[in-house]
Write a structure and sequence with these properties.
277 residues; alpha/beta; TIM Barrel; 8-stranded parallel sheet; 10 strands; 38% helix
Length: 277
């Protein structure tokens, strides 16, 4: 059974496998193991420099193409019209998947007009290189601008989201626009294991802190999570979260952990992030 969420008539797996920092044969093995463990979404990016090996892992798994959702992201250096289309053609060739299900703009880039970039991204969709388009690391304001400038629906905004960061403005903006939010670093790079609250809730259900965090995310409407691991055991367990349900009180206790606002990904090119009220 695969948990899904639906936006603009498109059904999307709620749990995907992230591949950031997974290189070469490790990426290949992990992607294959993830598909074996029941994942039906694989997420990569041009900047990860692993699309070829991700593609080999997909091929190794021998799953019918239509049963798998493949996402990649266009790097900021490729945002000009012409450059973007060529970069996506290269990505699809490296992945060996004929097309992607979703192409995202990896980060906002003020050096290229968003209208130009989204025009090129829409063209990629028109050509059949991707079924859907979206963005990543966009603020709520940038999200609104992207929706106005795009002919095709913006399916998701992929952002850092875990129990220790308050993403309320982005979540509310996305939901108001009918789109999903995809949570990267959903386990806060392992910090969920250090939380007594998450540990206590996990003990109640016989689940790990990682599984509790994944359940907390996937119980929220319109939220997708893409955990990453290089351990086959953890790859499997991160996807094994459908046999328990958190109570409203437990959901609230975990949400309250965002009071310290722990943002883990904040490079120099990051936008001026939304501030939660």
């Amino acid at each position: 059974m695969t948990l899904t969420t639906q936006h603009f008539g498109t059904e999307i797996p709620t749990i995907g496998f992230g591949t950031w920092k997974l290189k070469e044969e490790t990426a290949q093995m992990c992607v294959s193991k993830a598909i074996e463990a029941g994942y039906r979404m694989i997420d990569t990016a041009q900047a990860y420099e692993n699309e070829t090996y991700v593609g080999r892992g997909i091929s190794d798994a021998q799953l019918p193409r239509e049963d798998l959702w493949v996402t990649t992201k266009v790097w900021m250096s490729e945002f000009n019209d012409g450059d973007l289309q060529k970069s996506v053609e290269r990505s699809v060739e490296k992945l060996g998947t004929d097309y992607c299900d979703l192409i995202l703009l990896h980060w906002p880039n003020d050096d290229v007009p968003l209208e130009e970039t989204l025009g090129a991204l829409n063209e990629v969709r028109d050509k059949g290189l991707t079924g859907n388009i979206g963005v990543s690391n966009f603020t709520s304001k940038q999200l609104g601008q992207a929706v106005k400038l795009s002919r095709a629906p913006i399916l998701t905004n992929q952002v850092e989201y875990h129990p220790f960061i308050n993403q309320t403005p982005v979540l509310e903006a996305a939901h108001a626009l009918g789109m999903s939010v995809t949570a990267y670093s959903p386990l806060a790079q392992g910090k969920v294991f250090d939380s007594p609250v998450i540990q206590e809730i996990g003990d109640k259900y016989g689940k790990s802190p990682a599984q509790v965090a994944m359940r907390w995310l996937t119980q929220q409407p319109g939220v997708i999570a893409i955990p990453r691991s290089s351990s086959p055991e953890h790859i499997a367990s991160n996807n094994d979260v459908l046999d328990f349900e958190l109570t409203a009180q437990e959901m609230g206790r975990i949400t309250a952990l965002n009071a310290n606002e722990t943002r883990l990904i904040n490079p120099s090119w990051a936008p001026d992030w939304d501030k939660a009220a």
